[in-house]
Design goal:
8 helices, globular, single chain
Length: about 200
Protein backbone atom coordinates (compact mmCIF):
# COMPACT_ATOMS: atom_id res chain seq x y z
CA UNK A 1 0.00 0.00 0.00
CA UNK A 2 1.31 3.45 -0.89
CA UNK A 3 0.82 6.57 1.21
CA UNK A 4 -2.19 7.91 -0.70
CA UNK A 5 -3.96 4.56 -0.46
CA UNK A 6 -3.18 4.48 3.26
CA UNK A 7 -4.66 7.98 3.71
CA UNK A 8 -7.81 6.99 1.81
CA UNK A 9 -8.15 3.84 3.91
CA UNK A 10 -7.96 5.90 7.12
CA UNK A 11 -10.45 8.47 5.87
CA UNK A 12 -12.89 5.80 4.67
CA UNK A 13 -12.69 4.18 8.08
CA UNK A 14 -13.32 7.51 9.77
CA UNK A 15 -16.47 8.01 7.69
CA UNK A 16 -17.77 4.68 8.94
CA UNK A 17 -16.88 5.63 12.50
CA UNK A 18 -18.75 8.93 12.19
CA UNK A 19 -21.82 7.16 10.85
CA UNK A 20 -21.72 4.56 13.60
CA UNK A 21 -21.70 1.78 11.01
CA UNK A 22 -18.33 0.12 11.53
CA UNK A 23 -17.11 -2.59 9.21
CA UNK A 24 -17.49 -6.17 10.36
CA UNK A 25 -14.15 -7.49 11.58
CA UNK A 26 -12.88 -11.00 11.94
CA UNK A 27 -10.56 -10.27 14.83
CA UNK A 28 -9.74 -13.93 15.30
CA UNK A 29 -8.47 -14.30 11.75
CA UNK A 30 -6.53 -11.05 12.02
CA UNK A 31 -4.92 -12.25 15.22
CA UNK A 32 -3.95 -15.53 13.57
CA UNK A 33 -2.60 -13.75 10.49
CA UNK A 34 -0.30 -11.58 12.59
CA UNK A 35 1.18 -14.33 14.75
CA UNK A 36 4.34 -14.47 12.68
CA UNK A 37 4.73 -10.72 12.22
CA UNK A 38 3.00 -7.41 11.72
CA UNK A 39 2.55 -5.43 8.52
CA UNK A 40 0.71 -2.19 9.40
CA UNK A 41 0.03 0.34 6.66
CA UNK A 42 0.44 3.46 8.82
CA UNK A 43 2.33 4.67 11.88
CA UNK A 44 0.29 6.97 14.12
CA UNK A 45 1.57 9.08 17.00
CA UNK A 46 -1.30 10.44 19.02
CA UNK A 47 -2.37 11.78 22.38
CA UNK A 48 -3.16 9.31 25.16
CA UNK A 49 -6.67 10.68 25.70
CA UNK A 50 -9.24 7.98 26.48
CA UNK A 51 -11.62 9.54 23.95
CA UNK A 52 -9.10 9.36 21.12
CA UNK A 53 -8.61 5.73 20.09
CA UNK A 54 -7.02 5.49 16.62
CA UNK A 55 -8.19 1.92 16.01
CA UNK A 56 -11.80 3.05 16.51
CA UNK A 57 -11.48 6.45 14.86
CA UNK A 58 -10.14 4.87 11.67
CA UNK A 59 -12.16 1.64 11.99
CA UNK A 60 -9.20 -0.70 11.50
CA UNK A 61 -8.42 -4.23 12.63
CA UNK A 62 -5.63 -5.91 14.58
CA UNK A 63 -2.28 -5.31 12.87
CA UNK A 64 -3.45 -2.47 10.61
CA UNK A 65 -1.80 0.52 12.28
CA UNK A 66 1.27 0.97 14.49
CA UNK A 67 0.32 3.34 17.30
CA UNK A 68 2.46 5.42 19.68
CA UNK A 69 0.60 7.32 22.39
CA UNK A 70 1.54 9.80 25.10
CA UNK A 71 0.01 12.94 26.60
CA UNK A 72 0.11 15.69 23.98
CA UNK A 73 1.78 13.36 21.43
CA UNK A 74 5.15 14.68 22.60
CA UNK A 75 8.24 13.62 20.66
CA UNK A 76 10.82 12.42 23.14
CA UNK A 77 13.59 9.90 22.44
CA UNK A 78 11.39 6.89 23.19
CA UNK A 79 8.59 8.12 20.94
CA UNK A 80 11.08 8.92 18.20
CA UNK A 81 12.60 5.46 18.39
CA UNK A 82 9.14 3.93 18.16
CA UNK A 83 8.35 6.06 15.12
CA UNK A 84 11.57 5.00 13.43
CA UNK A 85 10.71 1.36 14.13
CA UNK A 86 7.36 1.85 12.44
CA UNK A 87 8.53 3.68 9.34
CA UNK A 88 11.82 1.85 8.77
CA UNK A 89 11.51 -1.65 10.21
CA UNK A 90 7.80 -2.11 9.51
CA UNK A 91 7.96 -0.06 6.29
CA UNK A 92 4.80 1.96 6.85
CA UNK A 93 4.50 4.47 3.99
CA UNK A 94 2.51 6.90 6.10
CA UNK A 95 3.22 8.70 9.38
CA UNK A 96 0.26 10.46 11.00
CA UNK A 97 0.55 13.04 13.77
CA UNK A 98 -2.90 12.83 15.35
CA UNK A 99 -3.90 15.84 17.43
CA UNK A 100 -7.38 16.42 18.77
CA UNK A 101 -9.91 18.99 19.84
CA UNK A 102 -10.10 19.88 23.54
CA UNK A 103 -6.67 18.40 24.27
CA UNK A 104 -6.16 18.32 28.04
CA UNK A 105 -2.38 18.50 27.78
CA UNK A 106 -2.46 21.56 25.54
CA UNK A 107 -5.13 23.15 27.73
CA UNK A 108 -2.96 22.64 30.83
CA UNK A 109 0.03 24.14 29.03
CA UNK A 110 -2.08 27.18 28.11
CA UNK A 111 -3.36 27.62 31.65
CA UNK A 112 0.05 27.28 33.29
CA UNK A 113 0.46 27.07 37.04
CA UNK A 114 2.27 24.62 39.35
CA UNK A 115 2.11 20.88 38.74
CA UNK A 116 4.10 17.74 39.61
CA UNK A 117 7.56 17.50 37.97
CA UNK A 118 6.74 14.71 35.52
CA UNK A 119 3.63 16.46 34.28
CA UNK A 120 5.59 19.73 34.11
CA UNK A 121 8.00 18.00 31.70
CA UNK A 122 5.10 17.28 29.35
CA UNK A 123 3.83 20.84 29.48
CA UNK A 124 7.33 22.15 28.81
CA UNK A 125 7.40 20.14 25.57
CA UNK A 126 4.10 21.75 24.54
CA UNK A 127 5.09 25.28 25.52
CA UNK A 128 6.58 26.25 22.10
CA UNK A 129 3.20 25.54 20.51
CA UNK A 130 1.40 27.63 23.13
CA UNK A 131 3.80 30.52 22.54
CA UNK A 132 2.73 30.55 18.90
CA UNK A 133 -0.94 29.75 19.35
CA UNK A 134 -1.57 31.90 22.39
CA UNK A 135 -2.58 30.98 25.93
CA UNK A 136 -6.16 32.11 25.24
CA UNK A 137 -6.45 30.15 21.98
CA UNK A 138 -6.34 26.49 22.86
CA UNK A 139 -7.43 25.10 19.50
CA UNK A 140 -4.83 27.18 17.66
CA UNK A 141 -2.23 25.84 20.07
CA UNK A 142 -3.44 22.30 19.36
CA UNK A 143 -2.64 22.79 15.67
CA UNK A 144 0.73 24.35 16.46
CA UNK A 145 1.49 21.39 18.72
CA UNK A 146 0.95 19.06 15.76
CA UNK A 147 3.34 21.24 13.75
CA UNK A 148 5.90 21.15 16.55
CA UNK A 149 5.74 17.35 16.65
CA UNK A 150 6.07 16.83 12.89
CA UNK A 151 8.97 19.24 12.57
CA UNK A 152 10.77 17.82 15.60
CA UNK A 153 10.47 14.34 14.10
CA UNK A 154 12.03 15.61 10.89
CA UNK A 155 14.71 17.56 12.71
CA UNK A 156 15.82 14.77 15.02
CA UNK A 157 15.43 11.70 12.82
CA UNK A 158 17.76 11.13 9.90
CA UNK A 159 15.83 7.95 9.14
CA UNK A 160 12.58 9.88 8.71
CA UNK A 161 14.23 12.61 6.65
CA UNK A 162 15.83 10.10 4.31
CA UNK A 163 12.64 8.10 3.81
CA UNK A 164 10.65 11.26 3.14
CA UNK A 165 13.29 12.55 0.71
CA UNK A 166 13.28 9.21 -1.13
CA UNK A 167 9.51 9.33 -1.48
CA UNK A 168 9.06 6.24 0.70
CA UNK A 169 7.31 8.09 3.52
CA UNK A 170 4.60 10.73 3.69
CA UNK A 171 3.98 12.71 6.89
CA UNK A 172 0.59 14.27 7.53
CA UNK A 173 -1.09 15.99 10.45
CA UNK A 174 -4.67 15.10 11.32
CA UNK A 175 -6.94 16.70 13.89
CA UNK A 176 -9.70 14.68 15.51
CA UNK A 177 -12.89 16.46 16.54
CA UNK A 178 -14.47 14.99 19.64
CA UNK A 179 -17.79 16.71 18.98
CA UNK A 180 -18.62 14.74 15.82
CA UNK A 181 -15.84 12.15 15.43
CA UNK A 182 -14.37 13.46 12.20
CA UNK A 183 -10.71 13.76 11.35
CA UNK A 184 -9.37 16.58 9.23
CA UNK A 185 -6.04 16.72 7.43
CA UNK A 186 -4.32 19.96 8.36
CA UNK A 187 -2.76 21.31 5.19
CA UNK A 188 -1.49 24.62 6.50
CA UNK A 189 1.84 24.49 8.28
CA UNK A 190 2.88 27.15 10.79
CA UNK A 191 6.65 26.93 10.59
CA UNK A 192 7.73 30.31 11.93
CA UNK A 193 8.42 28.75 15.31
CA UNK A 194 11.19 26.60 13.89
CA UNK A 195 13.09 29.45 12.24
CA UNK A 196 16.77 28.84 12.74
CA UNK A 197 16.37 25.13 13.46
CA UNK A 198 18.78 22.87 11.68
CA UNK A 199 17.90 19.31 10.72
CA UNK A 200 21.41 18.37 11.78
CA UNK A 201 20.83 19.43 15.39
CA UNK A 202 19.60 17.18 18.21
Amino acid sequence: MDAESAINKLLDGNKRYMSGKLAEKDVGSAREATKEGQHPFATVIGCSDSRVVPEFIFDVNVGDIFVIMNAGHCVDTLALGSIEYGVEHLHTPLLVILGHEKCGAVTAACQGGPCPPNIAAILEKIRPAVEKGGVDKIEESVVFNMNVASEEIRRRSEIVRDLEKEGKLKIIEMKYYIEDGRVEIKKKFFLLFCKGWSYGRN
